[in-house]
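To: structure subgroup
Subject: Chain for Friday's discussion

All,

I'm putting the inputs and outputs inline so they're searchable in the archive.
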Amino acid sequence: MKNNPFVIFVTAFIVVMGSGLAFAAIGGQSESSRGLEESSFAVDFGGEIESQHPETAIIETTEARETGLPDGSADEKKAEKQEARADEPTDGEGRSDQPLEKEEATDDATWIEVLFPTDRQVFEDKSVVFEGRAEQGAKVYAGEYQADINDDGGWRIVLFLAPGTQTVEFKAIDPAGNRATDSVTVSLETGQEKPKAHEFTVHQKYLESREPFEKFYGTGTPGMGVVARSEFGVADARVRENGEWWLPIEFSGLLESKTFPITISTTEGFSGTYWFSYLAKTHEFTANQQYGSCTENPPYDVFWGTGVPGTAVEVGSAYGSGRAEVGEGGNWEMKVFFETAPVGQPFEVVVADSLGNAKGFSFTRLDGQPK
């Protein structure tokens, strides 16, 4: 990589505890620096290190690896710069006519290069080892934190990355105070793991029942919605984190045995049709009369019996009527008054249900004293 004096510098904020571990954060909001999180640098100075920030990971000591440039590479860098200076016009006494900027003059005196990681490299682990080479005898820093460096100029430092893209700059300072910089842009990808896909399956438990109830179950992608629809009821559920789902559904309005379709569909586009048979409980229609005559004023009688749950039962006569509904248990009962019935004259009373069943009775009003 070439030296770039215009790269945004890493500004470090330091917290130093224990045997010298330093943490720092990049300052500023440029695109190259926004990725690094606060307390993102960890410098390995040797020995086991403690920090006043226990939530920040600690990097244990490892020896700097020998990362050599090809022989003579340092000399080649200097030779290139000197050759460039030789091409500039002079005043005849060896002095250049071109004004020298102070920063350029110091860059000629030393050099630094980042060898690893490569530019635009992407990592999944936030702990990254940065390595390179610099002029022998120079010191290398990331921000204000010094890297390990060996006698040959090979340097090494461990940094913590933040999610996203960030540019990290390194500087080398030789014993004379001359300095040079190099940088590398890296990224940390820490996207959340996507739910594991599961094959969608459907199982039906009962197929037919005397109870208006069915249950479906199976497998699918976690979080996926599953819906069961029929003309007698609708229900829905979601696939659980383990990839399993179950969906009970109740039906209403079934008065007789019936086979009907149930559609199972999902939020991922699946649709299938399943069939359920409801076997209605058999309830024979019966009707009974309690008294047959009455001396009360007004006169009344009580009727009761059995029938299909939900069906209607009516009592009718020329002098009074009533209506009831067969309960869930198949029973019904009602009290009917005959206020206008003549005394001593029997008349017909008919009990019938909504399914066409009927039974006839007779009632007589007896003379009695009004209450």
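Points worth raising on Friday:
Residues 73-86 form the longest helix (14 residues).
The CA atoms of residues 17 and 51 lie 5 Å apart.

D.
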